[in-house]
């Protein structure tokens, strides 16, 4: 062996490496240079100029905590899926949020009219083009909605009734731009549910190509949205590029990069150092630190209701379930665990939904809880509390709940479990006593269908025939006034039956660099990037 | 020699079969499957589930699924991931190359720095500074070093190049120096007290040349140690990759497992076990090449 040769090769390697390092650093710099446009704006003229400049080639980087689990919008289930794919796909209607309330506005639809109790006529907006160049037609809508009802778990849940039958009988294409949705019976929340991204529209050819399973080629991720998918590295990053044929307002951002940073420290460092412009999934614990570092934190009341599901088959006595509710001090939880960035649950659906009822809270009362438990003969029982390891906050919460329940004489064992196994155990096998999770519904009606007998999202297997019947009546009730009353009634029943320990609605917290303007945040942890520009 | 290589390659095949079997049965043993992940909290309709099961081959008994995978493994068709949107083979190759680059560069920098430190401490006889550095390096695991580096950059307001090689490389280098410096230094000190070095000394060789002679003498042992760590990095530096969002084999494993992406998981097991076994063979060959004594009897 030639020693000199060994050294020489090592030297060459070191040089190569140094070059590589410098290169990668320089390319990293380049990005920041193109992004940083002058911040000293004195007159309106320069302001428009900077906006124009940023319109041309702005890159927006967003840090998200979990990877998208699919590139098929009809299979989207997680927050990240809707966040990323929501830029690519659009639905017939869109959910907007202003002054504390949600609204459902026509989006791909220009106008619509209810023909009779079970038929709705829709007319599509003109000039909508898919990323592949095809014009949006009523045939695409028909194929997409049928695929959504067939394949999408959420789509199915949105458009089926209590007996699991589809509410849509038929979609009749009238001509290229008009179609009629025929219902089996009146269905009041139709418009709200057509606003969900799980019913998003894709070209008919692609819907047909993937009739039996998820889209498995990024080439076939084709929607009508303002961005198109350009690059996807699972678990690492997703890159989107502005779609120049978009029918609506042209976004100021040209390239949109989602960076998957599962580590909370990495997300903080990323936003503080300016490596990303926006970070979602900000823990309440670090809001103050971020603000002190000059990072802006947006806060919106969320729809995610954090709860401890109580298995109703194992704990059929409603008194016990109510006792569990009285045993927990929500105010303290919100103040201590969530640092105030949550709203104590005063109902089974977030106050941002129209018609969400504010109900009489379960005030913290340990002695009442003990009395109820004694009455039901449930004192000293041993329970398991299932928690997914995906969210560190949930694990902390489990420990606090354990202490509260111990104080009223219940012995709780915490079982931490990996997320996919958690989903199977809670929603398929129903093999748990207590389980922590948080549903994020898109409409009040959808939020309430979680509690329907045998609904797939009904983890605790709660069943109350009155609730089922009321939900049916709400769907078919024509009178708005009467419907509001029914909504209130059903929310009260579920609240008192307590298939869960109702805890709080988490605030949605989003951190942004000071230069990011025009960002809007929906209560579903979804960013609205329409007006975002980087100055 | 060729017989030796042939034998090793045969054992490589067995290793691949065994490791894919272990990984597959373990993964299938965990509750939930790809369809659970696809549907999350919701439930597919029976026909949608049946269609998917047929598509993913989950409708057959587990051992049949494994046999089918083995068949596909050797025909080069590794299937398409239902999550990733591209053929599994492409996906794994790309990640593998990323991990390989990381492993090679990290090994090179670590080794170069270790030799430099060992040289300085031998020549200038102020080993204190070097061993202090080494102790600092071993005081924290790689993942923690990563966090420290990241916070340092954040406080300096330097944009962190997430997704690029620089950060994982720096982290693994810093974390690696400690152990490998200690190994190298001990080996060299021991070598320097060998009789042959004394002979060279008597011949009037300079201190620097003695160092090089010693380095040559210990290379086989050092290479074996370095190759082992390189193999581990190729298999996946999970914590470091996750921290800096580096698309390597570690991220691939975590993502494939959490989404029950069986075809990707099996691909990972194949490539990883093959790499580890090949590095083992390479280590043996290198060892034999550098140190003729080990050749005898073996070939």
TrEMBL record, chain A:
Keyword terms, alphabetized: Membrane, Signal, Transmembrane, Transmembrane helix, Transport
Cellular component, GO annotation: ATP-binding cassette (ABC) transporter complex; periplasmic space
Domain (Solute-binding protein family): residue spans on this chain: 104-442
Residues passing through the membrane, by range: 6-26
GO BP terms in the entry: peptide transport
GO molecular function: peptide transmembrane transporter activity
Pfam family, one: SBP_bac_5
InterPro entries: Peptide/Ni-bd, SBP_5, SBP_5_dom
CDD domains cross-referenced by the UniProt entry: PBP2_NikA_DppA_OppA_like (cd00995)
Signal peptide positions on this chain: none
Tagged with keyword Ribonucleoprotein: no
Domain of life: Archaea
Keyword Signal: yes
Family label: Belongs to the bacterial solute-binding protein 5 family.
Name recorded for this polypeptide: ABC transporter substrate-binding protein
Organism this protein belongs to: Ignisphaera aggregans
TrEMBL record, chain B:
Superkingdom per UniProt: Archaea
GO biological process: transmembrane transport
Domain ABC transmembrane type-1: 96-287
GO cellular component terms given for this protein: plasma membrane
Lipid bilayer topology: Multi-pass membrane protein
Pfam families: BPD_transp_1, BPD_transp_1_N
Transmembrane regions listed in the UniProt entry: 9-27, 96-120, 132-156, 162-184, 226-246, 266-290
Keyword vocabulary terms for this entry: Cell membrane, Membrane, Transmembrane, Transmembrane helix, Transport
The keyword Secreted is annotated on this UniProt entry: no
Compartments it resides in: Cell membrane
Family: Belongs to the binding-protein-dependent transport system permease family.
Name the UniProt record assigns to this protein: ABC transporter permease
Species: Ignisphaera aggregans
